Amino acid sequence: MGAEELDGKKVAFLVAGEGIEQVELTEPWKAVQEAGGRPVLLSPQPGSVQAFDHLDKADTFPVDVVVSDASPSEYAALVLPGGVANPDALRTDRSAVTFVQQFAASTRPVFAICHAPWTLIEADVVRGRRTTSWPSLATDLRNAGAEWVDEELVVCEGGPGPLVTSRKPDDLPAFCSALVQHVARVDVPAGA
Description:
This protein has one domain: Rossmann fold. It has a 7-stranded mixed β-sheet, sandwiched between helices. Strands 2-4-5 form a 3-stranded mixed β-sheet. It has a two-stranded parallel ribbon with strand order 9-10. The protein is globular and about 35 Å long. 48% of the residues are buried. Helices cover 29% and strands 26% of the residues. It has helices spanning 22-34, 85-90, 94-104, 117-122, 138-143, 172-185; strands at residues 10-14, 18-21, 38-43, 48-53, 56-62, 65-66, 77-80, 110-113, 130-131, 147-148, 153-156, 163-166. A hairpin with a 2-residue loop joins strand 4 and strand 5. The protein has 192 residues and is an alpha/beta fold. Helix 1 packs across helix 6.
Protein backbone atom coordinates (compact mmCIF):
# COMPACT_ATOMS: atom_id res chain seq x y z
CA MET A 1 0.00 0.00 0.00
CA GLY A 2 2.90 2.37 0.49
CA ALA A 3 3.78 4.50 3.47
CA GLU A 4 0.74 6.80 3.39
CA GLU A 5 -0.71 7.61 6.77
CA LEU A 6 -4.35 8.61 6.87
CA ASP A 7 -4.21 10.14 10.37
CA GLY A 8 -7.67 8.98 11.42
CA LYS A 9 -9.46 10.49 8.41
CA LYS A 10 -12.97 9.12 8.02
CA VAL A 11 -13.93 7.43 4.75
CA ALA A 12 -17.62 6.86 3.96
CA PHE A 13 -18.61 3.48 2.49
CA LEU A 14 -22.15 3.80 1.14
CA VAL A 15 -24.15 0.61 0.54
CA ALA A 16 -27.74 -0.60 0.29
CA GLY A 17 -29.25 -3.09 2.71
CA GLU A 18 -28.25 -6.09 0.62
CA GLY A 19 -26.54 -7.20 -2.55
CA ILE A 20 -23.10 -5.76 -1.78
CA GLU A 21 -20.21 -7.68 -3.35
CA GLN A 22 -18.41 -8.48 -0.08
CA VAL A 23 -14.82 -8.30 -1.33
CA GLU A 24 -15.52 -4.86 -2.85
CA LEU A 25 -16.48 -3.68 0.63
CA THR A 26 -13.96 -5.54 2.77
CA GLU A 27 -10.76 -5.01 0.76
CA PRO A 28 -11.02 -1.18 0.48
CA TRP A 29 -12.20 -1.08 4.12
CA LYS A 30 -9.10 -3.03 5.20
CA ALA A 31 -6.84 -0.76 3.10
CA VAL A 32 -8.25 2.33 4.84
CA GLN A 33 -7.84 0.75 8.30
CA GLU A 34 -4.30 -0.47 7.64
CA ALA A 35 -3.30 3.03 6.50
CA GLY A 36 -4.63 4.60 9.70
CA GLY A 37 -8.00 5.78 8.43
CA ARG A 38 -11.48 5.25 9.87
CA PRO A 39 -13.95 3.53 7.53
CA VAL A 40 -17.61 4.28 8.29
CA LEU A 41 -20.49 2.20 6.90
CA LEU A 42 -23.44 4.29 5.66
CA SER A 43 -26.73 2.84 4.47
CA PRO A 44 -30.31 4.06 3.99
CA GLN A 45 -31.58 1.96 6.93
CA PRO A 46 -30.14 1.27 10.40
CA GLY A 47 -29.20 -2.23 11.53
CA SER A 48 -27.00 -4.38 9.33
CA VAL A 49 -26.40 -5.01 5.64
CA GLN A 50 -26.13 -8.33 3.81
CA ALA A 51 -23.08 -8.85 1.63
CA PHE A 52 -22.79 -11.48 -1.08
CA ASP A 53 -20.07 -13.53 -2.72
CA HIS A 54 -21.42 -13.19 -6.25
CA LEU A 55 -24.92 -14.71 -5.85
CA ASP A 56 -24.37 -16.45 -2.51
CA LYS A 57 -25.09 -14.79 0.83
CA ALA A 58 -21.91 -13.96 2.70
CA ASP A 59 -21.43 -11.92 5.90
CA THR A 60 -23.51 -9.15 7.44
CA PHE A 61 -22.02 -5.84 8.56
CA PRO A 62 -23.38 -3.31 11.06
CA VAL A 63 -24.43 0.10 9.76
CA ASP A 64 -22.57 2.93 11.49
CA VAL A 65 -24.62 5.88 10.19
CA VAL A 66 -27.93 6.19 8.35
CA VAL A 67 -27.11 8.12 5.17
CA SER A 68 -29.89 10.67 5.70
CA ASP A 69 -28.13 11.63 8.97
CA ALA A 70 -24.66 11.85 7.39
CA SER A 71 -22.89 15.02 6.32
CA PRO A 72 -20.52 14.71 3.34
CA SER A 73 -18.20 17.30 4.92
CA GLU A 74 -17.28 14.79 7.67
CA TYR A 75 -15.54 12.40 5.26
CA ALA A 76 -12.29 12.51 3.32
CA ALA A 77 -13.58 10.21 0.57
CA LEU A 78 -16.63 8.26 -0.55
CA VAL A 79 -16.41 4.59 -1.56
CA LEU A 80 -19.21 2.89 -3.47
CA PRO A 81 -18.76 -0.91 -3.52
CA GLY A 82 -20.43 -2.92 -6.24
CA GLY A 83 -22.62 -5.97 -6.49
CA VAL A 84 -25.56 -5.91 -8.89
CA ALA A 85 -28.40 -5.39 -6.39
CA ASN A 86 -26.54 -2.91 -4.16
CA PRO A 87 -26.24 0.09 -6.52
CA ASP A 88 -29.58 -0.74 -8.11
CA ALA A 89 -31.23 -0.29 -4.69
CA LEU A 90 -29.13 2.77 -3.79
CA ARG A 91 -30.15 4.63 -6.93
CA THR A 92 -33.79 4.46 -5.86
CA ASP A 93 -33.07 5.97 -2.43
CA ARG A 94 -33.31 9.77 -2.51
CA SER A 95 -31.09 10.30 0.57
CA ALA A 96 -28.32 8.09 -0.89
CA VAL A 97 -28.45 9.83 -4.26
CA THR A 98 -28.41 13.26 -2.60
CA PHE A 99 -25.40 12.27 -0.48
CA VAL A 100 -23.54 11.14 -3.62
CA GLN A 101 -24.44 14.38 -5.44
CA GLN A 102 -23.24 16.53 -2.54
CA PHE A 103 -20.06 14.53 -2.13
CA ALA A 104 -19.26 14.62 -5.85
CA ALA A 105 -19.68 18.42 -5.81
CA SER A 106 -16.89 18.67 -3.23
CA THR A 107 -13.18 18.54 -4.00
CA ARG A 108 -12.82 15.16 -2.25
CA PRO A 109 -12.50 11.88 -4.16
CA VAL A 110 -15.30 9.47 -5.02
CA PHE A 111 -14.46 5.80 -5.64
CA ALA A 112 -16.77 3.33 -7.41
CA ILE A 113 -16.12 -0.24 -8.50
CA CYS A 114 -17.92 -2.77 -10.68
CA HIS A 115 -21.68 -2.01 -10.80
CA ALA A 116 -21.44 0.95 -8.37
CA PRO A 117 -21.42 3.58 -11.16
CA TRP A 118 -25.17 3.00 -11.50
CA THR A 119 -25.52 5.15 -8.39
CA LEU A 120 -23.24 7.78 -9.95
CA ILE A 121 -25.44 7.79 -13.07
CA GLU A 122 -28.57 8.36 -10.98
CA ALA A 123 -26.80 11.20 -9.17
CA ASP A 124 -25.92 12.71 -12.59
CA VAL A 125 -22.23 13.08 -11.72
CA VAL A 126 -20.57 11.22 -14.61
CA ARG A 127 -21.35 13.65 -17.44
CA GLY A 128 -18.07 14.67 -19.09
CA ARG A 129 -16.06 12.30 -16.86
CA ARG A 130 -13.82 9.40 -17.90
CA THR A 131 -14.88 6.16 -16.17
CA THR A 132 -14.78 2.40 -16.18
CA SER A 133 -17.09 -0.22 -14.65
CA TRP A 134 -18.29 -3.77 -15.05
CA PRO A 135 -18.60 -4.06 -18.87
CA SER A 136 -22.42 -4.31 -18.85
CA LEU A 137 -22.64 -0.70 -17.59
CA ALA A 138 -20.67 0.76 -20.52
CA THR A 139 -23.76 1.78 -22.50
CA ASP A 140 -25.46 3.19 -19.39
CA LEU A 141 -22.40 5.32 -18.61
CA ARG A 142 -22.06 6.52 -22.21
CA ASN A 143 -25.77 7.40 -22.29
CA ALA A 144 -25.25 9.41 -19.08
CA GLY A 145 -22.51 11.44 -20.79
CA ALA A 146 -19.40 9.64 -19.54
CA GLU A 147 -16.45 8.44 -21.59
CA TRP A 148 -16.25 4.70 -20.78
CA VAL A 149 -12.96 2.82 -21.13
CA ASP A 150 -11.99 -0.77 -20.34
CA GLU A 151 -9.11 -0.22 -17.91
CA GLU A 152 -8.18 -1.58 -14.47
CA LEU A 153 -8.24 1.85 -12.85
CA VAL A 154 -9.46 5.17 -14.17
CA VAL A 155 -8.67 8.36 -12.27
CA CYS A 156 -10.60 11.31 -13.70
CA GLU A 157 -9.45 14.65 -12.32
CA GLY A 158 -11.77 16.62 -14.62
CA GLY A 159 -14.43 17.62 -12.07
CA PRO A 160 -14.66 19.24 -8.68
CA GLY A 161 -12.90 16.22 -7.12
CA PRO A 162 -11.31 13.05 -8.45
CA LEU A 163 -13.60 10.26 -9.68
CA VAL A 164 -11.84 6.90 -9.40
CA THR A 165 -13.39 3.79 -10.94
CA SER A 166 -12.46 0.14 -11.46
CA ARG A 167 -14.12 -2.75 -13.30
CA LYS A 168 -14.20 -5.79 -11.02
CA PRO A 169 -12.76 -7.56 -7.96
CA ASP A 170 -9.56 -8.42 -9.86
CA ASP A 171 -8.87 -4.67 -9.99
CA LEU A 172 -9.01 -4.26 -6.19
CA PRO A 173 -5.23 -4.01 -5.61
CA ALA A 174 -5.01 -0.93 -7.88
CA PHE A 175 -8.31 0.45 -6.56
CA CYS A 176 -7.25 0.13 -2.91
CA SER A 177 -3.83 1.63 -3.58
CA ALA A 178 -5.42 4.64 -5.32
CA LEU A 179 -7.87 4.99 -2.43
CA VAL A 180 -5.12 5.28 0.17
CA GLN A 181 -3.04 7.62 -2.00
CA HIS A 182 -5.95 10.00 -2.64
CA VAL A 183 -7.22 10.03 0.94
CA ALA A 184 -3.70 10.78 2.17
CA ARG A 185 -3.78 13.99 0.07
CA VAL A 186 -7.20 15.19 1.28
CA ASP A 187 -7.01 18.14 3.63
CA VAL A 188 -9.70 17.39 6.21
CA PRO A 189 -9.35 17.50 9.99
CA ALA A 190 -8.58 14.11 11.53
CA GLY A 191 -11.65 12.52 13.04
CA ALA A 192 -13.89 15.11 11.38
